[in-house]
Predict the structure.
Amino acid sequence: MDKILIVGLGLIGGSYAKGLTKMGYNVYGYNRNKDAIDYAKKNKIIIDGSSEFTEDFIGEFDRIIFSLYPKVFKEYIEKYGSFIKKGAIISDVTGVKESIVTDIQNILGDSVEFIAAHPMAGKEVYGIENADEKIFENANYIITPTKKNTDKGIAFATEIGEALNFRKISLLTPKEHDEMIAFLSQLTHCIAVALMTCKDSEDLVNYTGDSFRDLTRIANINENMWTELFLMNKSALLKEMDSFINCMSKLRDFINNEDEEKIKNMMRLSTERRKYFNK
Amino acid sequence: MDKILIVGLGLIGGSYAKGLTKMGYNVYGYNRNKDAIDYAKKNKIIIDGSSEFTEDFIGEFDRIIFSLYPKVFKEYIEKYGSFIKKGAIISDVTGVKESIVTDIQNILGDSVEFIAAHPMAGKEVYGIENADEKIFENANYIITPTKKNTDKGIAFATEIGEALNFRKISLLTPKEHDEMIAFLSQLTHCIAVALMTCKDSEDLVNYTGDSFRDLTRIANINENMWTELFLMNKSALLKEMDSFINCMSKLRDFINNEDEEKIKNMMRLSTERRKYFNK
């Protein structure tokens, strides 16, 4: 039962493989591009792997973790879902849940259990060359079971989260997960991108202090992955964007009207709420 | 010429006093509340001080730095400007410039030179008890001379910036300073306050990663100081807020229309511009 397949050896899949190998799992890998397989074998991140998604190879595993972009993940399950061994449990690392979990569970039917999970970790670099299992140490790991999931499925996802040494493992519904991600992660990336693009600020670099740097660190963004994540969580994200734009506009109007008390009240609420987030 | 008076022994004034004392200056202090004077004397941050702003005390100094909120600074100059010794040079630490520099220079006339400066440093705590001259080490120091200033005045402000070991000392016009501050500092504080207040996020604290914490660190805000700074830089700040709200709204519409190419182009520009700000 310590044999596990990671599908997709990018930054996250590679970091999973590294961490699980360190914990004594027998880790195998699939990756479309053979270079990543060669690199992973050479560096003892996996025991063996394949760059071809064949029934012979895939059908051997009782446990598989898909580390792919959400749309590609869905495509693989549509095309190759039948290759997966009956009775196997599969999981994922996808950053959106509502738009994929039920669909994938429906495609797989009763013979394979899909338990969705989201490691809330990352780096601003890509590829297995940058894989690093330490990115999970201070991060959250969210499992999003549905009614179709069993205790055995949830136990598998939990085991992976524990083996990778996440700071905190939580259970949320796919909907709760997507609302949380829309606010805490997607909205913050939208804000960083808007701030970075609303002014040609190159000549200001010499005057930049910590606050501007803090707010724009995530403005260095993988446009393919994040566009996909935004669009797959569109309605939850638009709700948070509208609510934020509305708050910015209110503050703008308070300043325009020189309404000192309303500005100060907003700042007091801000200070009070921020206290919960002090580490 | 190493005798210097700091007016206002709060966090910034106290940190100035500490740093200048360390560099061998003979530092004296004025503070309305006597406790800060007692603390500063006891801790050898100043040689001596007064909690009364009298002509006898003030008139002794050739160099004075006012570390007060902008409106209070203006009030002190209006009421007590005539106490300052003829030929003295005074400076400040105020975070807005256009709305105070010319006014104060006009009140003082030709007998006292006011050279404005802004140490772009701070902490989320207050008072001389938290004074720490190290906050200047990685910070910028901006001198904003006008036509009324002399080389001698600029040299004094520069000397203070060097003595306090700022990372970089720059000269800007008051207008350039205020535009830069509106974007890099005031807009970022507005964003943090809006983000922190647009949702009751207390139940999300367990899922919060670095990006949300980075964007809201400055949401813990001194409402009296920042409201004053925002209103004294109103037109420059409103311009930046409008431009940012416009960019957020554009991104919102691209997502609503599922216009992938436009979202990706915005993210590419964001990534490209962020590179200039990598330390």
Q: What stands out?
A: Chain A has a mean pLDDT of 96. Residues 177-277 of chain A form a domain with the 6-phosphogluconate dehydrogenase C-terminal fold fold (CATH 1.10.3660.10).
